Amino acid sequence: MKTEYELAKEIAFQIREGKDVTELKNQLKELRKKNIKEFWENWKPTLKELEHIQLPNPLEELHYEVLYHSGVLRKEQLIDGKYYRGTCRNANVAQWDEKGNCFWYMRHKFGNNFAEKINHLQDDNRYDLFVPLEEVDPKENEIIKKD
Prior knowledge:
By secondary structure, this protein is of the alpha+beta class. Helix content is 32%, strand content 24%. The chain contains 4 helices and 5 strands; from the N terminus they run ααααβββββ. The chain has a 5-stranded mixed barrel with strand order 1-2-3-4-5. Helix 1 runs antiparallel to helix 2 (22-42).
């Protein structure tokens, strides 16, 4: 079996020769799927590694299994009003809102500060998600201030 690199190289060569590369592209696509699946099946991340994770979109059952097994907190483990260290695109700390079924974090954008909500990874809506790792005491600039 060829590697992704070898297939990509062959595709480039075939394109230069003016040949049809449809089958090679399909092979490369399937090989990438297989490699990604194997990665997730064998990856045992630390909490430190999870702080910088970029989640696949969409999340599949295997992803949840790996993340929860590695220490990511499930929604059932969260306490209303408590703050959690975790990860998403725009924040490292967010407050769990049981009633709203979401997290809130302070967003700092173009000189403005405002509260923004974000889903827990269990509620994947194909947008940014908060991945909670542990309960923390927030810093002053992380405390939610809703207008």
